[in-house]
Amino acid sequence: MIDSETKVVGIIGNPVRHSLSPIMHNRALSHLGLNWVYLSFEVEPARARSAIEGARDLGMVGLNVTMPFKMEAVEWVDIKDGSVILTGSLNTLLFKDSKIMGFNTDGIGFLNSLREKSISLQGRKVLLIGAGGAARAVAFVVTQQEVARLTVLNRTPQKAHRLAQELSSFKPETEINTASYDLDLALVISDSDLIINATSVGMKDHPGIPIPTDDIDQRHIVYDLAYWPLRTELLRGSEERGARVVSGLEMLIHQGAESFRIWTGKEFPLPIVREELTEYLKSIEDRSR
What is the Cα–Cα distance from 103 to 47, expressed in whole angstroms? Predict the structure, then answer.
């Protein structure tokens, strides 16, 4: 029941109607018996900064920030966590003592999702598909885990090269390079053991597959950050060829868990939330058939 003591958190972006964050966080808040509510706010780009400042002034606890504001909002915060300085983007805001504090929980969320499944990054040859905000967060955390090599693949080669240069400056002892869709893709896939899709290709509104699965086999782990459908075309094709696959739902849950801790100081009920979101997505897929 919402009353005068209810604490408010939420998500700001455009669009946000598709977001699973309200379902995820409200389930966690309810399970823990907290008098909190999580709401979504779709804001026009020209008003995003004033909306965030207004949320602070209204006494909200914090916000998640999604596209298209994750990079732009870095300039609007008073205090930047190290993850924000490193990646140049944020996804979580905390309002405290009239200040706006910014965090990026994508990278640690990705890493914790692997840890939960006992997947180590040490010594791995990683192929990262994408060079946008999510890819950047993943790339910086991956390079800190003593991987043998990180290869960046992107439809716009200039973006891949730019990210690779930043990563090389950050972690010069790690082998970091780029790959091309035109020349050496099959060889790079065969010589990688962890493949991460950090593009929107494969999501419900962007159907397709970011790379062919012909060269994927049981040696590979394939992680698709897309979470809807639960089994993207990339995951289905990779699984059929014997690869171990991980759904983007795992990163969504774990990055949400980090935001939740920042706001509430409490542990996120991972199994409860995972069950809630899985059932919700399955019900949507069943209705769309």
Answer: 21
Strands (E) located in 104-251: 125-129, 149-153, 175-179, 194-197, 221-224, 244-247
Residue 70: active-site member: yes
Does 225 show up as a binding residue in the annotation?
A: yes
Query: What confidence score (pLDDT) does residue 280 get?
Result: 95
SS3 209: coil
Residue-wise pLDDT tens digits, 211-260: 999 999 999 999 999 998 999 999 999 999 999 999 999 999 999 999 99
Residue 248 is assigned to a ligand binding site: yes
More confident residue, 202 or 109: 109
pTM above 0.90, yes or no: yes
**Cα–Cα distance, 122 to 66 (Å, whole number):** 30
Percentage of the residues of the chain whose pLDDT score is greater than 70: 100
Q: Which domains does the chain have, with CATH numbers?
A: 7-104 (3.40.50.10860), 107-250 (3.40.50.720)
**Cα dihedral angle (198, 201, 202, 203), rounded to 10 degrees?**
90
Instruction: Please give the pLDDT value at position 203.
Output: 87
pLDDT 10s digits, 242-256:
999 999 999 999 999
Q: Is 177 annotated as a binding residue?
A: no
Q: Which of 7, 70, 99, 125 is catalytic?
A: 70
